[in-house]
Specification:
The complex is a heterodimer of chains A (104) and B (169).
Chain A: H1 2-28, H2 32-57, H3 61-91
Helix pairs in contact in A: 1-2, 2-3
Chain B: H1 2-22, H2 26-46, H3 50-75, H4 87-111, H5 123-132, H6 136-157
Helix pairs in contact in B: 1-2, 2-3
The chains are: A mainly alpha (104), B mainly alpha (169).
Chain lengths: 104, 169
Amino acid sequence: MSFSISITYWSHFVVISMFALGLLGFLLRKNAIVVLMSIELMLNAVNLLLIETSMRTNTPDGIILVVFVITVAAAEVAVGLGIVLNLYRLKGTVKLDHFRNLQG
Amino acid sequence: MREILFVIFSIFTITAASGVLLSKSPVYSAFSLILSFFGLAGLYLLWGSTFMAMIQILIYTGAIVVLFVFVVMLLNLNTEKENPPNLLFWGISAGSVWLLSLILLRVLTRSIPSKLPAVPVDQLRTISKLLFTRYLWPFEVLSLFLLVMIVAIFAITRTGEIPVGGEKS
């Protein structure tokens, strides 16, 4: 029984650290590409939690949800990188500090 | 044995994920992302979800990170330097994210039953059956969504003017 409890603790620790690292990267990094990578990290943390819960409760519904999340993540990355490409064409940089057109 | 593998893969994943946050160059971030996805695939395997481990490696490291690396190479970012980090801002962000993590850990540990999977389900068969019966409608909506995304990416990234009326006369 102690085995299962320790595994539970560890897996939650991994999920939350990955999510926290992704959130920190999203908040702190200035490079738009790295910000998109941080979003991927957060999505993957949620995927890990979904798969773990799904396998633990023996219901395959969480895995279906993970398939959907992966599809949406791929589409989101493609659109985000397209926007980054266009920003680079417009401004010559991908640093988020330089995009101040909407700042009041 | 399973515990040891579990801890090894966890530490590997977290280290690679912190590499994404801490490395200077986006190329190193992309490679750290690849490593962290491999670690995650190992964790999926340990949970008994072989299909998702395969999908993780195929789609994430095979498609998404390649897309990242491709864009990094296209943009030629070597000349850009990051500013030295603002320590106050890093400290505030790290502290608030740490608090959020504590709250999340509390919630997760309370809400999920700590039971290990007893019988591994026949995953591929179960998933495909569910995908084409109960989740057929979301599946079709997702395919439509992908089509919309393809059109949107073409519309965003096209260069040069295309006249409104279609072909040039």
